[in-house]
Amino acid sequence: MRIGLFTDTYTPDINGVVSSIVTLQKELKKNGHDVFVITNHKAARTRLDGNVLRLPGMELKWLYGYKLSTPYHFSAKEEIKKMRLDVIHVHTEFGVGMFGRIVAKYLNIPLVTTYHTMYEDYTHYINKFDLEEVEKVSKKVVSSFSRMLSDSAQAVISPSEKTKETLLHYGVTTPIYVIPTGLNFDQFKKDAIDESQVKSIRNHYGIQEDEKLVVFVGRIAPEKSIDIQIEGFRYIKDKKIKLMIVGDGPQLEELKKLVSTYELEEQVIFTGKKAREEVPSYYACADCFVSASLTETQGMTYIEALACGLPVFARWDDVLKDLVVENETGFLFEDAQDFAKKVEMFFAMPKEKINHIRENAQKKVIKYDANVFCSKVVSVYYQAIDDFEDAYEVVKIKTLDDYVKLYVENDKEDQPIKILISIDDYFQYKIRLHTRLDRSKIIEFQKKEVVIEAYRGAIRKIRMKDYTKKEITQYLQKNHILEEKDRNMIIDELEEKGYINDQAYLQMKMEKLQISLMGKGGIRRYLLGKGLSIDDIDQALKQVDDETELYKAKVMAEKLMSTIKDKSRKMKKQTIIKKLISLGFDSDIAKHSAENLDYGNEEDDDVLIKTIQKAYRNYQRKYDGKELNYKIIAYCIQKGFKKSEIEKMLTRMEWYHE
Q1: Is the peptide bond before 12 cis (omega within 30 degrees of 0)?
Q2: Closest by Cα among 492, 487, 494, 444 to 466
Q3: Which one, 38, 74, 361, 633, has least CB within 10 Å?
Q4: How many Å apart are CA 224 and CA 315, to the nearest integer?
Q5: Taking a C-beta distance cutoff of 8 angstroms, is the pair 127, 150 a contact?
């Protein structure tokens, strides 16, 4: 395979990104792949050194010599075209990294990107005055920018689960593969390190044989929180314990002043920038390693230190899971004083215990073998190439209100696929006719389409009739297969746009239910069934006074009385009271309304005669004699008349037979 590694930082720079790239480059070549590195340098001309193409760049002094170049290198495009790359692997987000993305699109080459840097932890470089609003906007820009760049690739490599979770939180939808950066352990093995060089380093910095050394290796910058370990040395009473800070960066002078302020010049040593090949010797001359950083995407220096058998002192961070185990491979501290306490405790341990921790440290990082790292990355390359070859071409675009219907096809499908996408996605992914979309992107759009269809279905339902939040939620649950977060998102948007408004629904329904002569209890039951808040319902019902409630009950009682026929006066009252209570009226109001009705001048005897005559008409064709009498008596009892009264009245009927 022919692979292009695009990066803004490369040798002779020393940092985690360079370590990762160099390790990958060596392992890929060892496994028979052709590897090309496209980077930059402090010069005005493009230069090709073997398989390393260096583009013009400008050094940013305030960012530890970071070199930035324009993303447009027209002449270099042709040079890269000659490389006949099978895949482009971008390792940085700006200058050269952006150029790599342009080249991938221009030459129609699949793109893989590694997210090495947690940029939201670096916003202090632009937020000089620590303004909350600037910080908030900066982090939002980082989120959007990271999502845009990640989603432009066929695959994203994340050095840790922590980084993957961050990218998912940003909304990245491209497949993310967690592959910890590998390490070539050969350079950290004891027999590979020159003991004389180790002694020379200790002698050069005045470290005596009986003195203990804690080392930090890395970029000297605010995000590394080096001030915490320096402060910790204020509390370390044993002056034979020293701290060596290996590296360079924008905070170097500031930290030197801090050391001077704390009067720690005899205990804290700054070495400045060291060549990459010298770094293992600096680890080897120390007794343990420390870093208080919480901004690592993986923490390569932790792994390097452990590979050298150095116990690690660190503040807890997700990247340390399974790396730094308390009292087994190192120690976790919370602040400067806690760090000092644990350092002194460590050096007071028996030699056997310290050696045991050293052995554990080396065993812990075996899984970070460079060859394993390389094979996993190559697997991602092949997957990205497959996904790229399975890409679809947009052959037709149709706009529909707030949505766009895409017609896409590839060589493996008989018919174009129709997909409904949002206007936002249409513009975000800059979709035009003949745009290529990866299979993963099509799958993502299809998942989103399910949500879009559910939303449109809810809109159609609401346009026909008003519904509450609960009712629309139930509709979505019943008719659409959605994840809870998507269902909640739809509900939130409907509420935001005013399509669902439970307060307005409550007021509207209150008016209608009042007109329908329903009692307060019935109104409460009805509205609770619609999913409205009981507190809101009770607050609305306070507007209905007792006088209004009594008036509604009387009107309803009169309507009910007109529908009740062939019943005794008592039965009529009981029936009306039950009906009123079932409609939600208070029992006292129901009784009062029923008792104050005008039941007319007709006596119960007259009503009873009519009831008997009606029963006779109903049953006389089917029954006769005593059986007919029993049926008539039962019917009249149901209408509220007493048996004795019914029997007495029956004797007055001309058709009655004993």
Answers
A1: yes
A2: 494
A3: 74
A4: 11
A5: no
Q: Which residues contact 196 (CB under 8 A, 6 or more apart)?
A: none
pTM across the whole model? 0.59
Which H/E stretch holds residue 63?
Answer: none
The secondary element (H helix, E strand) that includes residue 590 is helix 587-595
With 0-12 / 13-18 / 19 or more C-beta atoms within 10 angstroms meaning exposed / middle / buried, residue 266 is exposed
Sequential DSSP letters for 427-471: HHTT--TT-EE-HHHHHHHHHHHHHHHHHHHHHHHHHHS---HHH
Average pLDDT over every residue of 351-377: 92
Question: Can you tell me the distance from the alpha carbon of 435 to that of 619, in angstroms, rounded to the nearest whole number?
Answer: 83
Q: Looking up tokens 């026909």, which residue turns up? A: 464
CA-wise closest residue to 441 among 394, 476, 474, 488: 394
The answer to whether the CB of 505 falls within 8 A of the CB of 462 is no
Are β-strands 47-49 and 52-56 bridged in parallel, bridged antiparallel, or unpaired? antiparallel
Q: 569 — phi, psi (to 5°)?
A: -60, -40
Tokens of 251: 């905070």
d(CA 140, CA 170): 9
Backbone angles phi and psi of 495, in degrees to 5 = -70, -45
Q: pLDDT tens digit string along 431-470?
A: 999 888 888 889 889 999 999 999 999 999 999 999 999 9
C-beta of residue 59 within 8 angstroms of C-beta of residue 66: yes
What is the separation of C-alpha 417 from the centre of its chain, rounded to a whole number of angstroms? 29
pLDDT of res. 362: 92
Q: DSSP label at 286?
A: -
Average pLDDT value for residue range 261-284: 94
* Predicted pLDDT of residue 119: 61
Lowest-confidence pick of 1-5, 580-584, 650-654: 650-654
Within a 10 A sphere around the Cβ of 107, how many other Cβ atoms? 15
DSSP one-letter string for 526-544: HHHHTT--HHHHHHHHTTS
Give the torsion sign (CA, 46, 47, 52, 56): negative
Amino acid letter, 321: K
> If residue 222 lies in a helix (H) or strand (E), which one and from where to where?
none
DSSP 379-432: HHHHHHHHHHHT-EEEEEEEEETTEEEEEEE-TT-SSPEEEEEEHHHHHHTT--
Q: Which distant-in-sequence residues (6+ apart) come within 8 Å of 635 by Cβ?
A: 611, 615, 618, 619
Say if strands 330-332 and 312-314 run parallel, antiparallel, or are unpaired: parallel
Tell me if 599 sits within 8 A of 605, measured CB to CB: no
Token couple for 30: 């060892």
Calpha distance 293→316 (Å, rounded): 9
Beginning with the edge strand found earlier in the chain, give each strand of the sheet holding 241-246 in spatial order.
268-272, 241-246, 212-217, 288-291, 312-314, 330-332
Burial environment of residue 560 by CB neighbours within 10 A (0 to 12, 13 to 18, 19 or more)? buried
